[in-house]
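Field reference: sequence -> structure
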Amino acid sequence: MFFIAGTRTKIKKEKFIGIRFCPNCNGFQKIYAMKVIEQITFFFLPVFWWTKAYIKGCENTHGNKLSKEEYQNLILKYSNFPNEEDTMEIYRFCNAMAKGYESNEENADKIFNQLKDRFDLKGYDEDFLVLVKNILTLQQTQEVQSKIIL
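Structure field:
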């Protein structure tokens, strides 16, 4: 008679917390609060598991480690955040509105005010203002890079 036992590590997305620029991926990504879960398996079925770590980041690079308290505060802070679908629509709107604009505070405020008029941001104004500023900055950087002649 033989037994098959082992361990495995899983990353579980707990809460969507917005779209942000990920410096590791060098682009905008969906950001989540996640748990790293360690499991003991018996015949490939988990029989015991525990939370090994808490992280905040995109699905690809998993970003930064958090303490349990920071993780719980993050979950609480983003409890009413717009869902992924609504946030993607907001992101696409910001991207379309930012085309052709120079990256500065006045343009960011202008686009942000249009954003507030069209969408319910549920009190997360600061998060979406940062998103607008990052989109403007990235678009201007890409525009400048495309004009460089080698």
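Note: The beta strands are 5-22, 27-42, 45-57, 64-66.
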